[in-house]
From TrEMBL:
Keywords: NAD, Oxidoreductase. This is Nucleotide sugar dehydrogenase. SUPFAM superfamilies: 6-phosphogluconate dehydrogenase C-terminal domain-like, NAD(P)-binding Rossmann-fold domains, UDP-glucose/GDP-mannose dehydrogenase C-terminal domain. The keyword Oxidoreductase applies. InterPro entries: 6-PGluconate_DH-like_C_sf, NAD(P)-bd_dom_sf, UDP-Glc/GDP-Man, UDP-Glc/GDP-Man_DH_C, UDP-Glc/GDP-Man_DH_C_sf, UDP-Glc/GDP-Man_DH_dimer, UDP-Glc/GDP-Man_DH_N, UDP_ManNAc/GlcNAc_DH. The keyword Oxidoreductase applies. It comes from Amycolatopsis magusensis. Belongs to the UDP-glucose/GDP-mannose dehydrogenase family. It comes from the Bacteria. Transmembrane segments: none annotated. Pfam families: UDPG_MGDP_dh, UDPG_MGDP_dh_C, UDPG_MGDP_dh_N.
Length: 417
């Protein structure tokens, strides 16, 4: 049987950049995904993942990379890395269905000596208590003896031009020291720095700490912004001043809410696990309350800015993605902001160069193309996302009234969050 160095399971925002890095490092790589249209698109050289270009994919295909939905390929792997989604159930609980299903597929094809890595974000214990039993019972092999099991959290930051996979240190937690050693040997060929955690649970928890740290600190500056407005203090100036401290302070920026599939989701993995252990993470719950309240706060501010309130007002939303210059609206706070505006009777349009269709309550909003004309026409413009195309001078000049939730624009008709 011919061997494939690496099989990446799940070819999304995390898996595809990993596969690209492996191809660059000369590792024979195959991608496995259950999404057949995605598989066809990748094999045709089209990448739906922002940051992985058509040229990248052409290079990958030239090195022998192929995507497939046939899990038989797992039988040829020396290393399998699982990068499937870990979202939430409708009840807001961890949804590990994709992880379980990927682990079952791997188990059915597992051979002695294979390194199996979980990269999907999850609560501590997932690798040992969820993935390990599935792999062992499905294969008849023993983790740490017959095959190697590792957890290595993904730290990808879509749109980050400075830090990518290669120059972001990679944390590796092995089930045993030997497992960790195999993990280090694999990732050492792909990234500049590997960091060995004490075990899988420490590696899992480190990822939740990183994202919960962001979640809590964003809540702190959001609440600071709300309070500063009440005190007539310019929170953006406060932040700029505080950020000059060269030690002991890490700057975070307020905004209309948090978005994406990590920062709003990962703290719930932590609190859900804590709950099961009879522990209450009171700080996380408080932070969630603040962050979840921001879209409604933006709507209240907007309502107060307009002499006749939002009812019947023409409102233009600028930037509906969850991150600047990234074409992704998953969990974007713009959705909740738009809902809160619509509830108050505002007539909404949006501008976003990255998003063709943006729905609120299943109704698509009108998308504007001519930004200066739309700014001049709207009773109120709300800058929600910091896309590069939003030049401060243009917004200050053309908008009749602007609510800037990103603290960028100065001017007579501008109100800051
Ligand atoms: N996107 C990020 O910025 C980011 C950063 C750090 C960590 N993470 C974590 O990485 C994991 C993956 O996230 P993502 O953003 O790449 O998700 P994604 O939705 O972009 O991609 C996941 C892919 O997995 C595929 N998939 C689902 N179930 C599968 C299965 N059983 N077998 C094979 N393929 C399957 C899907 O079809 C999809 O293509 C999540 O746990 C996420 O929390 C994401």
């Amino acid at each position: 049987m011919t061997t494939t160095g690496l099989v990446v399971v799940g070819l999304g925002y995390v898996g595809l950049p990993l596969a690209r890095q492996a191809c660059r490092a000369g590792v024979p790589t195959t991608g496995l995904d259950i999404d057949e249209p995605l598989v066809s698109s990748l094999n045709a050289g089209r990448s739906p993942v922002h940051g992985v270009t058509g040229d990248d994919l052409a290079h990958m295909l030239a090195t022998g990379f192929r995507a497939t939905s046939d899990d038989a390929v797992l039988a040829t792997a020396e290393t399998v890395v699982i990068c499937v989604p870990t979202g939430l159930t409708p009840q807001g609980k961890p949804d590990l269905r994709a992880v379980r299903s990927a682990a079952r597929a791997v188990a059915g094809r597992l051979r002695p000596g294979t390194l199996v890595v979980l990269e999907s974000t999850s609560f501590p214990g997932t690798t040992e208590e969820v993935v390990r039993p599935i792999l062992e019972s499905g294969s008849g092999l023993v983790a740490g003896e017959d095959f190697h099991l590792v957890y290595s959290p993904e730290r990808i930051d879509p749109g980050n031009a400075r830090y990518g996979i290669a120059n972001t240190p990679k944390v590796i937690g092995g089930l045993t020291p030997l497992c960790a050693k195999h993990g280090v040997a694999f990732y050492g060929g792909l990234v500049d720095t590997v960091v060995v955690a004490r075990g899988t649970r420490e590696a899992e928890m480190s990822k939740l700490l990183e994202n919960t740290y962001r979640f809590v600190n964003i809540a702190l500056v959001n609440e600071m912004a709300v309070f500063c407005d009440r005190m007539n203090i310019d929170v953006w100036d406060v932040l700029d001043c505080a950020a000059t401290k060269p030690f002991g302070f890490a700057p975070f920026r307020p905004g209309p809410g948090i978005g994406g599939h990590c920062i709003p989701v990962d703290p719930l993995y932590l609190t859900s696990k804590a709950q099961r252990e009879g522990f209450s993470f009171s700080l996380v719950s408080a932070a969630r309350q603040v962050n979840d309240g921001m879209p409604e706060y933006v709507a209240r501010r907007a309502d107060a800015i307009l002499a006749d309130g939002l009812n019947g007002a023409e409102v233009l939303l600028l930037g509906v993605t969850y991150k600047p210059d990234v074409p992704d609206v998953r969990e974007s706070p713009a959705i909740a902001v738009a809902e809160a505006f619509a509830e108050r009777g505002a007539r909404l349009r949006y501008h976003d160069p990255y998003i063709d269709r943006f729905e609120v309550d299943s109704v698509a909003l009108d998308r504007v193309e001519d930004l200066p004309a739309a700014l001049a026409a709207a009773d109120l413009t709300v800058l929600l996302q910091d896309h590069e195309c939003y030049e401060s001078a243009l917004l200050a000049r053309e908008a009749r009234c602007l609510l800037d939730t990103r603290g960028r624009v100065a001017g007579h008709h501008v109100r800051l969050l």
